[in-house]
UniProtKB/TrEMBL annotation:
Solcar repeats lie at residues 35-121, 133-218, 228-316. This is Mitochondrial coenzyme A transporter SLC25A42. GO terms for biological process: mitochondrial membrane organization; transmembrane transport. SUPFAM superfamilies: Mitochondrial carrier.
Length: 328
């Protein structure tokens, strides 16, 4: 038997030696292509741009109602859209969208990219590397991603809000807004409303990413398909946006009031003071939840498009890497 295993010089046959020297699976190098942070940034920027451009007219209309004391209704909202169209033309409905793009592309890029990084880090920390995270880390990854994006892009959100509610004569372009606010109200004004923004983005981003990731996980378990179809992603994103925005909406109203106080003539300097003034003058539902019904239309659409676009472009880039079109 021993002579059957060794050759005449006592050496192992080549095939058997190769088998015996194979590295353990845990030590083998993963040669599958992996997307870089730059890939995630590009996918996120594109997703944010597509989603926000689609719902820009509704977003602008919502902001106008949020910062005024007018009573909101669907009829009044669409009347405002129609009057704006008749008075200033179709493109006026997208006024401020350039500022939105300047803000939302880096915001979405940072948010999606940092979410991928936080998922990877939390997965490693909790021992779920390459697997779906448990509920709390799943929520935490979304919240941290939203906070990171909001902190790095906040002044652009202020500029966008100002452009959305003012006429062309007041602010001609994005740089004009920055210059006028800095000269007339001080640089500190560019960060007015920052605290309610962060307080609002923690539940919003956390719940939105948590809901979307959870629905994808449940879908995989039920259908045994690793990836949902695009229309299923749209539905998951819509549910995530609906729940996330409803939970954080009052803080969104507060932040808009504080951001636009310089041009509306109001005096909103603190979160509690702004909330108290809104509730006193307009009531809880008609004040803090003004425009929420419009958000129930535009929010799920925007989030659904955003998540779907990101996942689809992410998957497309991964396939291109696998086919050898890109080399890291």
């Amino acid at each position: 038997m021993a002579h059957g295993v060794h050759d005449h010089q006592g050496r192992l046959p080549v095939a058997q030696a190769a088998v015996l020297t194979l590295p353990a699976p845990s030590q083998a190098k993963d040669l599958r292509p992996r997307l870089t942070a730059l890939d995630s940034l590009l996918c996120g920027a594109f997703a944010g741009a597509v989603a926000k451009t689609v719902i820009a007219p509704l977003d602008r209309t919502k902001i106008i109602f949020q910062v005024s004391s007018k009573r909101f209704s669907a009829q009044e909202a669409f009347r405002l859209i129609y009057c704006t169209y008749v008075k200033d033309g179709l493109l006026s409905l997208w006024r401020g969208n350039s500022a939105t793009m300047v803000r939302v592309m880096p915001y979405a890029a940072i948010q999606f990219c940092s979410h991928e990084q936080y998922k990877r880090q939390l997965g490693s920390y909790y021992g779920y590397q390459g697997k779906a995270l448990p509920p709390f880390p799943r929520f935490l990854a979304g919240s941290l991603a939203g906070m990171t994006a909001a902190m790095l892009t906040y002044p652009l959100d202020m500029v966008r809000a100002r452009m959305a509610i003012t006429a062309k004569e007041m602010y001609s372009n994005i740089m004009h807004v920055f210059v006028r606010i800095s000269q007339e109200e001080g640089v500190k004004t560019l960060y007015r409303g920052f605290t309610p923004t962060i307080l609002g983005v923690i539940p919003y981003a956390g719940i939105t990413f948590f809901t979307y990731e959870t629905l994808k996980k449940l879908h995989t378990e039920k259908t045994k398909r690793s990836q949902p179809y695009p229309y299923e992603r749209l539905a998951f994103g819509a549910c995530a946006g609906l729940i996330g925005q409803s939970a954080s909406y009052p803080l969104d109203v507060v932040r808009r009031r504080m951001q636009t106080a310089g041009v509306t003539g109001s005096c909103y300097s603190t979160i509690l003071g702004t909330m108290r003034a809104i509730v006193t003058q307009e009531g809880v539902i008609r004040g803090l939840y003004k425009g929420l019904s419009m958000n129930w239309v535009k929010g799920p659409v925007a989030v659904g498009i955003s998540f779907t676009t990101f996942d689809v472009t992410h998957g497309l880039l991964l396939k291109l890497h696998q086919m050898g079109y890109f080399i890291h």
